[in-house]
Amino acid sequence: MAKKQEAAEGKSGSELISEKIAELGDWRGETLAKMRSLIKAADPDVLEEVKWAGTPVWSHDGIICTGETYKAVVKLTFAKGAALKDPGKLFNSSLEGNTRRAIDIPEGAKVDASAFKALIKAAVVLNTSGKKKPAKIK
User: Fold this and answer.
1) Is residue 135 assigned to a domain?
2) pLDDT (average), residues 34-63
3) Which of 10, 27, 106, 126 has the fewest CB atoms within 10 Å, counting from its CB?
């Protein structure tokens, strides 16, 4: 769907995310922009896309996280969050699942930037490690 949306609008995922941030025009846009900046700092090769009715998605050999905006929080959902170590205790939502974990950021909350970037880097390592396993030789 993202490719169809981009092709129809003639815009890249990065452009669509920038537009979404601008359209929000409040603390949610500012928060999403800050988290986006941290994601890009942690992984300069990150792919930005928009999927699922306009949801920002950051990927590197698989989805790292999505950025949803709600009335009370900006939610960053890590696709494989349950498999990541979280020494900074950033995950505070979707803790009961076996796969995903999320960080809910309410208005005015501060996120530890270095802990968040470490989490992004760990997600990239997890995504890329699955693709680099040597083939079994029989």
Assistant:
1) no
2) 95
3) 10
d(CA 126, CA 134): 15
Residue 100: give its domain's CATH number: 3.90.1150.200
Confidence at residue 3, expressed as pLDDT on a 0 to 100 scale: 47
Cα(53)–Cα(58) distance, integer angstroms:
15
The pLDDT of residue 8 is 44
What does the alpha-carbon distance between residue 20 and residue 80 come to, in Å, rounded to a whole number? 25
Amino acid in position 98: N
One-letter identity of residue 26: D
Kindly state the average pLDDT of the residues 86-98: 91
User: What's the whole-number mean pLDDT along residues 7-35?
Assistant: 90
Is residue 132 a part of any domain in this protein?
no
* 48-67 core/surface letters (b: 16 or more CB in 10 A; e: else): bbbbeeebbbbbbbebbbbb
| Helix residue ranges per DSSP H, 74-131 | 113-129
